[in-house]
Amino acid sequence: MNRTHLLNKLWEYQHKFGYISNEAISEISKLLNVSAIEIESVVSFYHFFHKTPTGKHTIYLNNSIISELKGFEEVKTAFEKETGCTFNDNGNEEFSLFETSCIGLNDQEPAALINFYPFTDLTPKKVKLIVQKIKNGENVKDFASKTKSNIHYTPPFHKTVIFKPYEMGKSLQPILKNSPQQIIDKITKSKLLGCGGAFFPAGYKWQSCKNNEADTKYIICNADEGEPGTFKDKALFQYLPGLLYEGMILAGYATGAKEGIIYLRAEYLYLLPALEKLLEEFYTKNLLGKNILGIDGFDFELRYQIGAGSYVCGAASALIESLEGRRGEPPVRSHSATKYGYLQKPTVVNNVETLCYAARIIEFGEDYFLNIGTPESPGTKLISISGDVAKPGIYEIEYGTTFKELLGIEMSQATSPYFVQVSGPSGDCINNTEFNRKICKEDILCGGALMVFNRNRDILQILRNFIEFFKEESCGVCTPCRAGNFILTEKIKKIQRGLCTQEDLDEIKQWGKIIKLSSRCGLGKASPNALIMATEKFKEYFNVKIAPNDGSQNVEFDMEDAIHEFDSLIKDTQL
Ligand code: SF4
């Protein structure tokens, strides 16, 4: 056993004892030959590992903005009342309550995980019943919610890519007639864009990994779908996991990798038994293992690694750190993973949806894919829609679809949409003059989340939720992200108190620029996006919020302290 087993070992103790004690750390330290101090620092990094005992039932209530708008506070109060515990301390022997960021159930909010089983559409009445059942000794597994699929089959059949019927092993058949290079050529020709948010062409990654000679290579599936508002990858795990496995097998064949790892976020742990059962079936049918499809020397092994609650691990470099048994902090110098990836070996890291599309492209042919969508972004895209819409859920849309269509009567049926957040808090916000814009590379790309807010929603509440999310999720290694998001939160609070001036708005933009330019990874760089854009796109709203610049706004002023703190932190760090 080595360090790469660290997360699994920690999970063993966390599940068994409800926390990770000093004795556990010392045992793991001896077993894996990693210092106890290092293990402590790994434990402290992940939200789902605890250093002090938790109750038999850990309740993680989602605090995303959609949850907030659908009754989070009432549900939170109900949990506290019924369990006799308060949130974010360790609770009592029976219960521990924690807030957590998006758990992939934004279409069924408020939602919580109890011992990692989902409970959706919560109300105070439902909470009372749930807690009563637990107190009566019932097993949460037996009465957890059956999560709704909410899949909407939008493109006509001849333009559907992902949600066509699935037949096990069908996308692997072309392997029998095509060399690894021919498989890569098909993916490259299809112009498949990565679907995790970076939109990097998948074919380039596969080619680069293939070109890098090495004794060992890896295919990693990034299933750490943590961007608030996104739940499309969860749907793929629930309804098309075979397609994902086939995408990974194809990537292995094409690049010469013989091992695949699916890094599954712990929030989706309840899906694991069915997923592992299917994995066994793949082995039984010789679609995984040795000499796959009877091809001599074509071997590919596939396994799961469970994350432990960290948004930043969704970044490929941080995810690799996590897989290697470290804190999921993005490294300072990030080499291309296709050259020095997992364990310094050539590695392809692709998102769940990307791998599913790869399998479909090989199954249907690249021309089928190229005939759908736009010239720069062929094919379709999965979008998770939540918020003020009558039909939340997952939509497979053809690239080039307008927001107007997506929000319209034929699709999600938004009610007076006003503020739409594209690609989660780290993405762009658009206002109602922009709904004719198209989702595609030629206009605006969407990583997979659309959060819709109507005219009656308070924009500042939305923005504050986003910035607080980043403040919580910042791994803290670089100052602009750690301190900058703190300052932006204070600024928003100041606006909410009615004490904001034009100067404050200008400062928001300046701090945003600093954070974007000098943060180390995508989390920091993207964190001020929504706030900065909103000040531009919702000018009338902010104009109303600005206080007269006559000094009266300084009554409750705490910004000077915040800025002073930020300045001294900056002095300690070379930007
Ligand atoms: Fe960590 Fe934020 Fe720096 Fe990224 S930008 S490395 S999340 S502190």
Show the helix and strand layout.
Blueprint lengths: L5 H12 L4 H11 L3 H10 L11 E6 L2 H5 L2 H12 L11 E6 L11 E3 L2 E3 L4 H12 L4 H4 L7 E2 L27 H11 L11 H10 L6 E6 L8 H8 L1 H15 L3 E6 L7 H13 L16 E6 L9 H8 L23 E5 H13 L1 H5 L9 E8 L5 E6 L4 H5 L9 E6 L5 E4 L17 E6 L4 H15 L5 H18 L5 H17 L3 H5 L2 H9 L1 H7 L13 H13 L4
Parallel strand pairs: 1-2, 5-11, 6-7, 6-9, 7-8, 10-14
Antiparallel strand pairs: 1-3, 3-4, 10-11, 12-13, 12-14
The protein binds iron/sulfur cluster.
Iron/sulfur cluster binds next to helix 18 and helix 20.
Fraction of helical residues: 40-55%
How many distinct beta strands? 14
What fraction strand? 5-15%
CATH homologous superfamily designation of the largest domain: NADH-ubiquinone oxidoreductase 51kDa subunit
Say which molecules are bound, naming each kind only once.
iron/sulfur cluster
Q: Which CATH C-level class of the largest domain is it?
A: Alpha Beta
Radius of gyration: 24 Å
Biggest β-sheet description:
6 strands, mixed
Keywords: 4Fe-4S, Iron, Iron-sulfur, Metal-binding
Domain NADH-ubiquinone oxidoreductase 51kDa subunit iron-sulphur binding: 460-505
GO molecular function: 4 iron, 4 sulfur cluster binding; FMN binding; metal ion binding; NADH dehydrogenase (ubiquinone) activity
Family: Belongs to the complex I 51 kDa subunit family.
